[in-house]
Design goal:
alpha/beta, Cobalt-precorrin-4 Transmethylase, domain 1, Methyltransferase, Cobalt-precorrin-4 Transmethylase, Domain 2, 3 domains, five-stranded parallel β-sheet, five-stranded mixed β-sheet, 43% helix, binds S-adenosylmethionine
């Protein structure tokens, strides 16, 4: 009996030549391909002359189907997990399946391959030594602004996936929360015919996007430079605690609470909080003081 294994298999995010030889071998030889959309992946495999059996696993059936797939693996099957594009689990289904395999002691073998976030980051011309992948921001404006506010002091590069329908609104919110000067890179249609990578301060990027509706189409990654401000030597964890506390408390109390949690100097936290407030829109800054 062969060893049960779950392979995580990335697929192209546009350009079909980006699939690896190893991915093709795995997709050809496993007992079953677990796919987010079987019709979509079926077309991909047909392109490469591969025929195999499919099982549909998406957000709506994952909890119910994971035990079935675990049983299948435990009886000796090999499975390959694919999503519609890029690396499974990166804003795509598969998390519950991977957790269940690991809990059951079933080997999970990841293959390296395409991922829109990393592809965008590699060409964005912003610091890549430390970054945060934030996936999709909330669709509703208030929640999106709230999520952005929690990141206002984040010094690492931020990567967001965004729907083309919300691009303009999202850039407006980035400007409101992070300021017009924050550098943002828009990477759209990566690896495809109309690939476009354009970086500018957020305010200018919004103008550029609004100048031509074509620039609001297709698949989009936003790469946002991290907060450049004077961090008073405070660690990212302290900065994050303060940014979150400021959503509920006035600066003085937020600084005291943050300093107590992290055992750092209250004055440094307070001074850092002052620089943060300068980045917020006037009405929010006054609400925090
Ligand atoms: N698992 C995928 C990955 O590894 O990148 C991402 C899946 S997520 C559901 C789809 C989002 O990824 C799109 O809305 C877009 O933000 C981004 N994306 C996928 N393909 C892209 C491309 N060719 N160019 C730019 N962004 C892309």
């Amino acid at each position: 009996m062969q060893l049960p294994t779950l392979y995580i298999v990335p697929t192209p995010i546009g350009h079909l030549e980006d699939i690896t030889q190893r991915a093709l071998t795995v997709l050809r030889t496993v007992n079953l391909i677990v796919a987010e959309d079987t019709r979509y992946s079926g077309r991909l495999l047909k392109h490469f002359g591969i025929q195999n059996r499919f099982f549909a696993l998406h957000d709506h059936n994952e909890a119910r189907c994971v035990p079935i797939l675990i049983k299948r693996l435990q009886s000796g099957s090999t499975l390959a997990l694919v999503s519609n594009a890029g690396t499974p689990l990166m804003s795509d289904p598969g998390f519950q399946l991977v957790c269940a395999c690991r809990a059951a002691g079933i080997p999970v073998v990841p293959l390296p391959g395409p991922c829109a976030a990393i592809t965008a980051l590699s060409a964005a011309g912003v610091p890549t030594d430390r970054f945060c992948f934030e996936g999709f921001l909330p669709a509703k404006r208030a929640e999106r602004c709230h999520a952005l506010q929690a990141l206002v002091a984040e010094p690492r590069t931020l990567i967001f996936y965004e729907s083309c329908h919300r691009l303009v609104e999202c850039l407006q919110d980035i400007i409101t929360v992070f300021g017009v000067e924050r550098p943002v890179v828009l990477a759209r249609e990566l690896t495809k015919l109309w690939e476009q990578i354009y970086g500018a301060p957020a305010g200018q990027l919004l103008e550029w996007v609004q100048q031509d509706p074509w620039r609001q189409r297709g698949e989009i990654v936003l790469v946002v430079s991290g907060y450049p401000g004077d961090d008073q030597g405070l660690s990212p964890a302290v900065q994050r605690t303060l940014a979150l506390s400021l959503q509920q408390l006035p600066l003085k109390q937020a600084a005291a609470l943050t300093a107590a949690i992290h055992a750092v100097k209250k004055n440094a936290v307070y001074r850092y909080g002052l620089t943060l407030k300068q980045r917020l829109p006037a009405e929010e800054a006054s609400a925090l003081s």
